[in-house]
Specification:
This protein is of the alpha/beta class. About 40% of the residues lie in helices and about 15% in strands. It contains 13 helices and 12 strands. Strands 1, 2, 3, 4, 5, 6, 11 and 12 form an 8-stranded mixed β-sheet that branches. Helix 1 runs parallel beside helix 11 and helix 5 crosses helix 6. The longest helix has 22 residues. The N and C termini lie far apart (about 60 Å). The model has no long low-confidence stretch (mean pLDDT about 95). The chain binds 6-O-phosphono-beta-D-fructofuranose (F6P). 6-O-phosphono-beta-D-fructofuranose binds next to loops.
């Protein structure tokens, strides 16, 4: 009898249920009645507190198109995972003990960057772990693509598409703030797909003077409007020179709800133009996964079961050059996949006149 645990951790995204379904259905297909699957609620919280249940084949039916996660999720910061809190709970010991209590052969973990650090820690502690890369940010090192990204890209692009009509009618400057945490994959691709005039991503610090110059240039070409796709993690050239501590301190005093509002104010003061900010926020993580994410999540889920069958634990399932491959968790944990500034896609955007705010 195989005993498999499954949990989803960190921010939710589209395709989690598609991946859960793929793992469950493939396990039943492969092992029939010789498998028992345990759903662990709310990510590592459930593993710490022993909050789990035995799943049945029905749990994996009718969830392919469902957004969110049927298992629930939570954020359990890696920094605090070894810290004993007021409840005196040793979280790592508790997770190991519940893994043993369930008598698991393997724990399948669906998550992003923070999740992978803890997954690697559990591997180091001797647990059999296999992970699947999910996040709308596409910032997990070791895989070309995470599931969730392509669905979020559709939504963010749609927002920019819709903004065009109002921007044009009112001859306004519009800023659309796109998620992505500390990396620019989502704003970069949504900006290009949505036909933004300016794209600001964390990997390319912006200068407000250069930005304004570019807006004036576009004004001179009699362009009625200007749309900026701004990463939630966008930083200025000055900020890029700060230490982490200085940056945190300066941002903590920023009197704006997010970076886009600061940029809007700065552009407004220099151009006298009417500016609006749109922040789609968690909208980008919601709803049904797009077909591409359904397929990717399904491929990842079935590949996880292949690794379980082979006893090839301690890996993240990844996609590289179109092939599904295992990547050791020890290589993935703690490494961020940022956007290379010499990426062909960026050059192509520059070639058609999209500005990145750099000097
Ligand atoms: O990692 C996914 C993500 O949506 C990021 O793009 C964003 O910075 C963050 O999560 C928001 O986190 P929360 O849902 O905890 O507010």
């Amino acid at each position: 009898m195989k005993r498999i645990g499954i949990l989803t951790s960190g921010g939710d995204c589209q395709g989690l249920n598609a991946a859960i379904r793929a793992v469950g259905k493939t396990l039943y297909e492969r092992f029939g009645n010789d498998v028992e699957i345990f759903g662990i609620r709310d990510g590592y919280r459930g593993l710490i507190q022993g909050d789990y249940y035995a799943m049945t084949p029905q749990d994996f039916s009718g969830i392919l198109t469902l957004g969110g996660t049927i298992l629930g999720t939570s954020r359990q910061p890696f920094k605090q995972i070894r810290i004993i809190g007021e409840d005196q709970m040793d979280k790592v010991a508790a997770m190991k003990s519940n893994y043993k209590k369930m008598r698991l052969d393997c724990l399948v973990i669906l998550g992003g960057n923070g999740t992978h650090k803890t997954a690697n820690l559990l591997r180091e502690e001797g647990l059999n772990v296999i992970t699947l890369p999910k996040t709308i940010d596409n910032d997990l090192w070791g895989t070309d693509m995470t599931f969730g990204f392509q669905s979020a890209l559709e939504i963010a692009t749609n927002v920019i598409d819709c903004i065009h009509t109002t921007a044009d009618s009112h001859s306004r400057i519009f800023i659309v703030e796109v998620m992505g945490h500390k990396v620019g994959w989502l704003p970069l691709f949504a900006g290009i797909a949505g036909g933004a005039d300016i794209i600001l991503i964390p990997e390319i610090p912006y200068s407000i003077d250069t930005l304004v110059e570019n807006i004036h240039l576009k004004d001179n070409l009699k362009k009625r409007f200007c749309i900026l796709a701004v990463a939630e993690g966008a930083i200025s050239v000055e900020e890029s020179k700060m230490t982490k501590k200085e940056f945190k301190a300066s941002r903590s005093h920023m009197p704006y709800p997010s970076i886009s509002y600061r940029i809007a104010r700065e552009i407004g003061e220099r151009t006298g133009r009417e500016i609006r900010v749109t922040v789609p926020g968690h909208f980008q993580r919601g709803g049904s996964p797009c077909p591409a994410d359904r397929v990717l999540a399904t491929r990842f889920g079935t590949a996880a079961v292949n690794l379980i069958s082979e006893g090839n634990f301690g890996n993240m399932v990844a996609i590289r050059n179109g092939q599904i491959v295992p990547v050791p968790l020890s290589e993935v944990a703690g490494r961020l996949k940022t956007v290379p500034t010499d990426l062909e896609v960026i050059q192509s955007a520059r070639d058609l006149g999209i500005h990145f705010g750099d000097e």
